[in-house]
Structures are given as structure tokens and as C-alpha cells.
Amino acid sequence: MILTNIKIANLYCFDDLNVDFTFAKKIVSSTLDDEFLENRPKFKFKRFCILMGPNSVGKSAFAKVIYAVNSFLKGYTLPATTAEAFIDPTKLATLEVEFVTPKSLFIHILKLEIAPSSNKISSIEYASLPILKSDTNTICREKLEKLMQGEEFPKSVVIKSQDKIRSAINKLKKIDFEIEYDFEFDDHSFKTSLALNIDPKLVFALIKTFEPNVTKVVAHEIADPFVQCTCYTIEFSNKKSFDFYPISPVTSAISHLSKGTCQLLTAMECICKIISNSKNESSVFYSLDDKLSSCDSELELLILNLMVSKLSRNSQLLYISHNNDLLGIDFPTHSFLFLGRGGPLVKAFLPEQMGYSKNDRSLLSLVKNNCFSTIPNTVAIDELFSEEFVGNSQDLEVKQTK
Hints:
Layout: E1 2-9, E2 17-20, E3 36-37, E4 40-44, E5 48-52, H1 59-73, E6 93-101, E7 106-114, E8 121-130, H2 137-148, E9 157-160, H3 165-173, E10 181-184, H4 200-210, E11 214-221, E12 230-236, E13 241-244, H5 259-276, E14 285-289, H6 297-310, E15 316-320, E16 336-341, E17 346-349, H7 363-368, H8 379-382
Parallel strand pairs: 5-15, 5-16, 10-14, 14-15
Antiparallel strand pairs: 1-2, 1-6, 3-4, 6-7, 7-8, 8-9, 11-12, 12-13, 16-17
Helix pairs in contact: 4-5, 5-6
């Protein structure tokens, strides 16, 4: 599945959020190749996206919403959402996702309504149709809209739940949505596979760059028949060693490794999957959530460039980071997405839709001028610098609870 558009309302800090993963204009001399559907050159999509923004604007939540949709389309249930996740607990949350299946060359749209009281889907609308050779992103969207309104198209499919939610879900489960994904979050709760045999040479090359004292990486199978995973023993020049398991949080390594290297290990499985699948025709959605924040900035840039260069033809990568050095990387402007607050709710800022390009002004300059509302509000901390604030603790009301 290739994600082309997503709309979120009344969920987390998002209300009427719309993020478009397609673009209209052809980029001359782009550093990213093949940002269009194979055999459908007029249908352009973003294969790679850097998501940036200040704290508490929902960057992780945005990735978790995409994960939830992928999980649902793969045939699983929609992941549980607490009541606090709804902005207005008296109203339904809505998700609208547009995506493409590159093998079948179909475009799909799925609309879900979620009830806050039961956290269950209360409405499903779905439609799909073939992408013709001359079709652009815009033409396909116009066709989908007409299809949902009742117009007929060859080989199209329409499913509307009305009150028969289970029947609609069963029909969706019969459709191959070509779903593969790997979402990496700090809590490891979104691991999507237990088995991955990584080439030890690949592990060595990555970790040796971060830890020069590493001398060898040895792979061996775990004896437990219920855990299909390879263990990697990392050896150092001082004869110390530790075992690394891609499916487990990196805790035993902390005494041996820097925090930045530990972060690399938590992202290792995703990085290695991208490299190993570089020639694979399958469509995989990868997401790395601020996994390299403690790494040297140049090393983060290096790893990011490596992943993008190895990203397979039909795959996508969502990379979440706070590192402003990434703004100077030689990627098209449409490869950047900013989340910022224009009030209590979060808004998405897509530079290419705002008329900005790297030929006009650098993205870093735009960020520093707060064009995407990404500069944090520091008024409360600024007040701490003032002399008037010091010693005024008697003005504060202190409440004690028994």
C-alpha cells in the first residue's frame, strides 16, 4: 500500500487535519528517483517524508493513526483508543484514507467513523477503481468522488456499511490491500515482526560507525523454539561483549554503549529491512519516530541518506525528527511536512502547497521565521529570567491534599 492522502478529525490533537502525500508538478533534477507509480508516470506520490515540529503537536500520534489504518486494512481490529484521545468525547472521530496498491494499480478510499463511548467503528465507506495510464492524482480523486456518489466505473468496488459493520469488514478482508509495514516507536509496542535474519556484516558496518571499539559481530540462533529471532553478539577490543536481540528493548547494552548507539540499535531492524528489501517489489510503509535524536547530527544525516537511497520502488518512509540540520539536506521541498499549532489544535504545513521551494528561500530560514508555527511558545520560561519573578513564591497559592 502507498499512502496518498489522510484526513483526521476529532482524534488526539487533530481536527480537520489533511495531509496530502501526492504532488502535482514534476521536480526537475530531483534527488529522489521514481516518485511516481510504475507504468503510471502521471501519478506522483511522496516516497519519503520528514515530519518535524515542536513537542506536543502529535508527531507520534500522527504515525500511530497511520499504523492503526494499516493494521485495520491488514485484517486486524482497529487498535484500542482511550476516551481521552477524542477531542470532543460527545462526537464521532473520523478517518479518511486514500491509498494505492501498486501491484494491482488501483486507487482506494476508506472512510471510518469511530464512536468514543465504545471505541468501535460505527460507519464504513469504501471505494476503489483502476488507475489508467493517463490518470493523474487529481483525475483519480475526481473519479473516486463520483464513484462514491453513485456513478459507475469499470472494475470499481463500493462498500457502504449502513448498519451492517461486520458484513462490511468481512468484505474488506477479502481484498488484497498489499499491506506491509514497520513502525518503530520508543516503547516498542508497535513491533510488527518477530523474525528477521540480518546479515551480521550489515550490523557490524552500522554499529562500527558509531562505536569504533567494536571488533566483531557474530550471529547465532536462539535456542527457544517459540522465539524465531537471531541473536547478535557484539564484541569489543577490550574483550567485553553483549548480546543484541532486534525484537527486544536495548537495556543490557547501556553499560557498554553510548545513548546514541543504543538508539541506533532500537532502529536497527527497520534500517536493515529497508536495506535488505531495496530490490523487493513489495510495498512497505516504514516509520521511524525520533529514533536517532541522541546521535551525532552528521551520523543521523548519513543514516537517513542511506535509508532513502535504499528505499524500494513501491515503499514509503515517514521519518520523525527534531534535528533542524535535516532542513539543509538536498531533498525536494515536498519531502518535508511540518506540524504546528495555530491555536489549540494542530495544523499541517506542506511547503510545496504554500508556494515555497528551495529556489526561493531555504527551509531553515522559513522555520526560523516561524512560517510553519513550529517555534515553541517560551513566554512562561522567559518570565523566569525576569527579576520580578524571583522571591515571589508567597504570591503562589499552594494546595495540599490529604
